[in-house]
Design goal:
heterodimer, A: alpha+beta, 4 helices, B: alpha+beta, 5 strands, globular
């Protein structure tokens, strides 16, 4: 919960208010954290910015309403946050310290590959695809390519499968 | 109404220039065309349910359920959080060789034009079976034999598969990498290394077992056809590959259909045992080998 680092304490003018302020801050620290669960850690291969494949470790962390995918490279971390209902995806901007909505995401079952924002970040993550496959068997059976486009509000505005990605959206 | 509006949005969005993933990376996928940047990104989130394209009509004309369907029930984004644990569990590692190959490997079915016929394996138990003889992959696939044998008396555990998930998450295109357990150590030999193999094989009049290529191709074909079985090469047994579950590091449980009955079996792939015994004939050895190959063999 990195954003918690930026909580500011209320103005404190005396010891009593300091105590109250700390109590409030403490409660704020516990509320949004919720229950986090590491689903898995996967040693795999990733690419960044269409670069060469490189080793990475994906840590999937489930929280109340989001799942975080932390892609750990030798030279840094790329974190993707996915929410359900509605499905939204965003990337943690380490420079500006904020979540930036993704423009698109895609997955290809036959290569076990998931990509975010085009090929800005791609990872071989069979766990994600296995989960998706079982969670939505009718929708994914016989599918290979899935592509989703997010609108300006972060929600999905279009998606396509297989040849539909070439035919319907051009 | 909300869903209808969402679907309408999909139609409108078709005017967008949205190349496929296949076009995003020439190295990873098959064709190349870069995406035009989208700039209208904001963080404001709207409510509502899952919307988006995909799906389409679920029912054909005529009749339909009493409860009306709009035709957009399956409309949705196609992706989700991926947080539901699959029945096979989570994988902890993807072997570097396999993953490097996979990330560069173009899809084997880039167009998605698959025949999604479903088959009733229960009605396909008897007689001659040609395993993918029209396949264009070039492998020797003529593995038909007209053999009818009694099932081993040691195969005592029959199972009813009603309600069983025969298509676990890993049993899909890319299954070789998707298997969420340690793989790749089985096979790779010209003849099995099991201690009992030489004498028994000579007695059975065979020199080797089905190759990994033949077995893998059979699974690939079955997955592409959404078929839950493969015919074990050179036998009339049918392996329900989706039932394969590793046990320990080198054992596996699985279901085989023989003469119309489903048997749950175990195999020790290291020692070459099936239900704790040395195979009684060549067919059983083929069953053992097929199950071990799908469970632990190399496959990309």
């Amino acid at each position: 919960m990195r954003h918690l680092q930026y909580l500011s304490l209320p103005a404190i003018v005396n010891r009593k208010s300091l105590f109250v302020g700390l109590a409030i801050a403490g409660s704020l620290l516990t509320i949004p954290a919720g229950k986090s669960e590491v689903l898995y850690e996967l040693k795999t291969t990733c690419t960044k910015q269409e670069g060469q494949p490189q080793s990475c470790t994906i840590q999937a962390i489930n929280e109340a309403s989001v799942t975080l995918y932390r892609h750990r490279f030798r030279d840094g971390i790329e974190t993707i946050r996915i929410t359900d209902e509605p499905v939204k995806m965003s990337r943690w901007d380490t420079f500006n310290k904020e979540w930036v909505p993704l423009k698109r995401a895609s997955a290809r079952f036959s290569t076990n590959t998931v990509c975010f924002n085009g090929t800005d970040l791609c990872a071989i993550n069979p766990n994600y695809l296995n989960s998706l496959r079982e969670d939505r068997p009718e929708r994914t059976a016989g599918r290979d390519l899935v592509n989703v486009i997010f609108g300006s509000d972060g929600r999905i505005v279009a998606s396509c499968y297989d040849s539909g990605c070439q035919e319907s959206f051009q | 109404m909300k869903r209808f509006c969402a679907a309408l949005g999909i139609t409108l969005s078709s005017t967008l220039n949205v190349p496929s993933l296949a076009k995003l990376s020439p190295e990873m996928f098959t064709t190349g065309q870069s995406l035009s940047p989208t700039t209208d990104i904001a963080r404001a989130g709207g409510g509502g349910g899952r919307v988006g394209g995909g799906g389409g009509l679920r029912m054909g004309g005529g009749g339909g359920p009493a409860k009306g369907l709009s035709g957009f029930q399956s409309a949705g984004g196609g992706l989700n959080r991926g947080a539901a644990k699959p029945t096979g569990g989570w994988s902890g590692a993807v072997s570097p060789g396999a993953s490097t190959g996979a990330i560069r490997r173009p899809s084997t079915q880039p167009n998605g034009n698959r025949d999604l016929r479903t088959r009733d394996f229960g009605s396909r138990n008897q007689g001659n079976r040609e395993l993918g003889s029209n396949d264009s992959r070039g492998a020797n696939r003529d593995v038909t034999r007209n053999v009818s044998r009694e099932v081993n008396r040691n195969w005592t555990r029959t199972v009813n598969l009603a309600g069983t998930n025969l298509h676990p998450g890993w049993a899909r295109p890319g299954w070789g990498v998707a298997r969420p357990w340690r793989t790749g150590w089985y096979g790779g030999w010209s003849t099995p290394t099991w201690g009992w193999w030489g004498a028994r094989a000579a007695a059975w009049g065979i020199v080797t077992l089905a190759t990994a290529t033949i077995i893998n191709d059979a699974v690939d074909t079955a997955v592409a056809e959404n078929n839950s079985i493969i015919v074990v090469p050179n036998t009339t047994y049918q392996l329900l590959y989706g039932t394969i579950q590793p046990s320990g590091t080198s054992n596996v449980t699985f279901v085989v259909n023989a003469n119309g009955t489903n048997y749950e079996l175990t195999a020790d792939c290291q020692r070459g045992l099936i239900n704790g015994q040395i195979p009684q004939n060549a067919d059983e050895a083929q069953v053992l080998n097929a199950a071990c190959q799908v469970a632990y063999g190399s496959a990309s």
